Amino acid sequence: MSKGDGREVIGRRAKIREVLERLYDKYNRRELIRPDPLQFVYGYSERGDMEMAGFLAAALAYGRVEQIEKSAADLLGRMGASPYGFVADFGNKERRRLRGFKHRFTTAGDISNLLTVISIVLKKHGSLECFFLEGCGPDDENIVPALCRFCDSLSAMHARRHGGRVSRGLKYLLASPSRGSASKRLNLFLRWMVRSDDVDAGLWKSVDKAALVVPVDVHMGRLCRILSFHDRKVVSLATALEITGSFREIEPADPVKYDFALSRVGIVDNCTGRLRKGCELCGLYAFCLKRENRSR
Fold it and tell me: What's the whole-model pTM score?
């Protein structure tokens, strides 16, 4: 790379950071959390309940925002005042209370299978954080190896109780990066637990936020393509890592900092990725316009 090219890259990076900071200042506020499923973390005051509510709300964070909100409220409502207590004591009585629950293709049986193994974890480790930390290695470049160990260990617990089989529904809820998944919902949960600001709860104090991976769904993938952070057609683990690498160049100590703010562009501003009236008011407009002109 020539000095000129290097200066151009640095200049572009600074420009993107300036835009992202404006979006962060605009959207990264507690009062703008709803309808994000993160809202359910703040429905509780006890640490264990907040962690469990976050884990379950993130597990259901697929599909339409309105349906996610409705399903998470339904599930947590069935658990009573303490989601942590409900899961820690999970048995036949608790399983019966989940009958009839359904979120798209996640059934009551899928949730019960998940809570059965989580109950084992809570009895042994006390919290999801302590269990997750067992899988963290000192030489891990990012959170991916620990997330693989977390998902694969839980799946193995279930398999030992079911003749070596893991149901399709449980595999979806524990979408391990070891299978190439971008693990959007689990990375979302980790962002909520590890980062601490006006939006993210920061309950986990022993995981470095610099190791986090951006939760990438179709919307985030589209916005990051507009920013030229990737040009992949499929959202996969490789996509998430490439996008995270681009954010890390801008904010090395906190690569997931702008995730919530960018997601608001889609939810609050109803971004579809196509230029239309009103787009000129968006901070990303110049990048969209440039990409649109290149594609002509």
Answer: 0.91
